[in-house]
Specification:
two-stranded antiparallel sheet, 14 helices, 69% helix
């Protein structure tokens, strides 16, 4: 493999591994903040124990997310120096805001929340976790605005062989980045909801602290159902934006080769093994694709053959990843709805089949998130900045294949170890369940609130 392929593979591995932690951080911070707020408002110690138990799992996930996220930014200078030179003035601005504003708030107030038990008032302590939750989501906003600019570049000019920003507000209000942000944060909320549902289901199957996990289950079920419905709604808007700004990606998502008005949607496509442009068999719904893309049944969808071969993304991985992601989304709607119904009917513990399904469903939203990023990033190829800079022109020119292969192997081994540590800690503390005492997370048993 050449330097470009190895660098792409390294960035894919490190970013996808980092993104195992981001969605749970986005959603679990909101849930923990809500739990502690309920405690402050009602005085019910059950909500305090919930905040501390789920907060402990949040902290483990947050710590690993920070460690794995730092290496990503270094790669822009190490592996993608030409990219940084060409668009660094634009791409660096939202990343700088994320680090100096959002991450600073996260770092300060997560310390207040972690070490402030019994040292600050209950109200201020609850406010501190809300600031962490808001800052975490703000962090995602600026990072996704940066990525949104790569998907749909705005507010720039090419001057002296480089892209320079001329309109910061255009970058900050880029419709592509904003819809991507809204779609991603609610996807993160779904990850957190199914994380809470799955762990609660495990304990309920074993009749372990049923009052505690019954309450956690209900909270996760409602949060999950609302979030997955929002995922579908924002996903529809995201597809409309993709159809408008990235026609090659949209055509690859739907395996559309010929331009047509009133285009139908391919539910299932089996391509010819010898030539992916030839279709062996497919399930087809007329005019639905045009309606989904342009909200009119006669909208024109451009086919891949209208674009030069060198400008087309790989079709098969984008097409199948998109369908798998959507299928998982509808499966999660069904599971979340069943969880809400069982919870409000008071039949959770009797519905052991549903509890087992929810336990094994914990990985589903994680996988769906990863598939979404495969669609987003592979569908943008061969561009690293769509229509402006090709991926092959963005890699550092001074790197050798040996250097990149060595760092790739090192990252893979290190991240594999960190992943094992994270899973071990999460499983250990999740199985242990909540502490009976009312002390802080790092307090010895027996301390009073």
């Amino acid at each position: 493999m050449d330097v470009v392929t190895l660098s792409r593979l390294q960035f894919a591995i490190t970013s996808m591994f980092h993104f195992l932690f981001v969605p749970l951080t986005l959603g679990l911070s909101i849930l923990v903040a809500f739990m502690e707020t309920r405690y402050v408002r009602t005085g019910n110690v059950l909500y305090l124990r919930m905040a501390k138990f789920w907060g402990k799992l949040f902290l483990i996930n947050f710590a690993l997310g920070v460690v794995t996220g730092i290496t990503l930014e270094f790669q822009f200078g190490m592996n993608w120096a030409e990219y940084s030179r060409y668009v660094g003035d634009i791409f660096g601005a939202p990343l700088a805001i994320e680090a100096t504003l959002a991450f600073f708030l996260e770092s300060v107030f997560i310390g207040v929340w972690l070490f402030g038990w019994n040292k600050v008032s209950k109200t201020f302590h609850a406010v501190s976790i809300w600031i962490v939750a808001i800052a975490t989501n703000l962090s995602a906003l600026w990072i996704l605005l940066a990525n949104g600019w790569m998907q749909h570049p705005v507010g720039y000019v090419i001057r002296n062989g480089r892209a320079e920003m001329v309109d910061f507000m255009a970058v900050a209000t880029n419709p592509y980045g904003l819809i991507k942000f809204s779609h991603q944060i609610v996807s993160g909320y779904v990850v957190a909801a199914f994380f809470v549902l799955g762990i609660s289901a495990w304990h309920l199957l074993r009749k372990s602290q049923p009052d505690f996990f019954r309450s956690s289950f209900r909270m996760g079920a409602v949060f999950g159902l609302v979030s997955i419905v929002l995922v579908l709604a924002t996903g529809d808007q995201h597809a409309v934006e993709v159809a408008k700004t990235q026609p090659t990606k949209f055509a690859a998502m739907e395996a559309v080769w010929e331009t047509s008005k009133g285009a139908g949607i391919n539910i299932i496509v089996i391509p010819d093994a010898q030539n992916e442009r030839n279709i062996v068999e497919k399930v087809f719904i007329p005019k639905l694709l045009s309606y989904m893309a342009f909200h009119t049944p006669e909208g024109e969808v451009k086919g891949l053959r209208d674009f030069p071969r060198q400008d087309r993304p790989p079709v098969a991985p984008v097409f199948f990843s998109f369908r798998a992601m959507v299928g998982m989304g509808f499966l999660m709607v069904i599971l979340a709805l069943c969880a809400v119904i069982a919870s409000f009917r008071g039949t959770i513990e009797r519905n052991r089949l549903l509890l087992r399904f929810l336990l094994y469903a914990i990985p589903i939203p994680y996988i769906a998130n990863q598939l979404g990023w495969i669609v987003a990033e592979m569908g943008r190829q061969p561009w690293i900045v769509y229509g402006v800079l090709r991926t092959s022109d963005a890699v550092s020119t001074s790197l050798s294949t040996v250097q990149v292969a060595g760092s790739l192997a090192g990252f893979t081994l290190l991240y594999g170890f960190l992943g094992a540590v994270d899973i071990f800690l999460l499983v250990m503390y999740a199985r242990k369940g909540p502490d009976d005492d009312a002390g802080g997370i790092l307090k010895p048993a027996g301390r009073e609130v």
